[in-house]
Amino acid sequence: MARWICKKHLFRRTEYICSCCGCRSDRPYVECPNCGSPMGGSKYDPEWVDEIEEIDAIFDD
To answer: Is the dihedral of CA 42, 50, 20, 14 positive or negative?
Structure first.
């Protein structure tokens, strides 16, 4: 069963990526609009933490 990988960003919208085909979506559908796989939940990927670390390194805090 496929899952949505939820990627949160600091300055961009949250995106959902299908674990089966890699389709990117703006919301978690029941089925992937690209491959039609039924979704069984989501997985959280806090990419915004990496974005904050980059900004922190620039300002040397």
So the answer is: positive
- Give CA separation, 12 vs 18, 37, 44, 51, in Å: 18, 26, 16, 11
Integer Cα distance of 14 and 51 in angstroms? 13
Q: What is the pLDDT of residues 5-53, one digit of tens each?
A: 888 877 888 899 999 999 999 999 999 999 999 998 777 666 666 777 7
- The two tokens of residue 5 are 């990988």
Helix residue ranges per DSSP H, the chain: 47-59
Contact 15, 23 (CB under 8 A): no
- Among all chains, which residue has been given the structure tokens 């959280």? 44
